[in-house]
Amino acid sequence: MTGFGLAEAPLGNGRVVAEIRTVNQRFLDVRIKLPRELADLTLFSEQIVRERLRRGRVELHLRLEGVAFEAGVLDKDRARAAYRALAELRDELSPGAEVPLSLLTAVPELFSPTHAPQMEVSRESTRLAIDRAIRDMDAMCRREGETIAADMRNRVTAVRESTEQIVERATTAHRALHQRMRERLEKLLEGTDVEFDPLRLEAEVALLAERTDITEEIVRLKSHLEQFEGVLLASANEPCGRKLDFLLQEMLREANTLSAKAQDALISQHAVAMKVELERLREQAQNVE
Hints:
alpha+beta; Ribosomal Protein S5, domain 2; 3 domains; 4-stranded mixed sheet; 7 helices; 4 strands; 62% helix; 13% strand; rod-shaped; hydrolase activity; YicC-like_C
C-alpha cells in the first residue's frame, strides 16, 4: 500500500524533519538517507522502521532545520598543520600567491565531534520524528485501505451475483441439454429405418450431465467467498493480503474448472464475468498488507 508521512521533532534551537514514503512491494526494503550530523543514527533509524512496518519499499529521509547542534570546537593544532601544509604547497607551486583560510573548510574533522549527551538527545529527537512520520503515513494508508476494502466488497457482491446466476442456469441446463440432444437425434434419424430409443437417450444425457456437473465447484466457490468476506471484516488492523491472495487463487481455479466443465453458453458467459471480477480483486489484493 502506498503512503506518505511528514513530521518533525525539536532538537536544540532547530528541529529534525522526517519524511517517509512507501510503495507496495512483497517484502520489506528500507532505504535511509540522513544528514551528515546524524549519520551515526542510520542503523538506529532503520531499526525503528523495521519494527513498525512489515512490507513495502520504504524511503526515509531526515533533515535538520535551524540550529540543531551547538557549534563544534575547532581543533587549532589540526587547522595550523593543514594551513602550513597548504602554504608549503603554495611556496612550491606558486610563490607569493594568497592562501585563503576558506580552504580549511575542506579539511575533514576540523571540529571536534558532538559529545555523548548531545548525541542521546539527537537519538530521542530522531526517534520521535520517525514515529510521528510513520503515524502520519499510517493514517494515509488507512484511508486508502478503506477505499480498497469498499471496492473489494462491491466486487465480491458481483462475483456472488454471477455465482447465483450460474446456479440458477445450471438447474435448467440439464433440461435444455436433454431437449437439444432429442431434437438432434430426431433430425438425424428422420427418413431412416432406425427406431428412436428414448431410454438410450436418457442414459446418454445422464452420463453427459454427470461429466458436466459443477455442484462441487459451486460449493467450494461459495465457501471461499464467505471466507473472503470474513477476512475483510475481521482484519482491520491485521495483515491479510496473503490470505486474500490465496483465497482469490482458489476462486479463480474453481471458476476456470466450472467454465471448462459447463456445456452451456450462458454459464460460460457468467463464468467469464466472474473471472474478470476475480482478476480485478487479485490486483487490489496486491496493495493490501
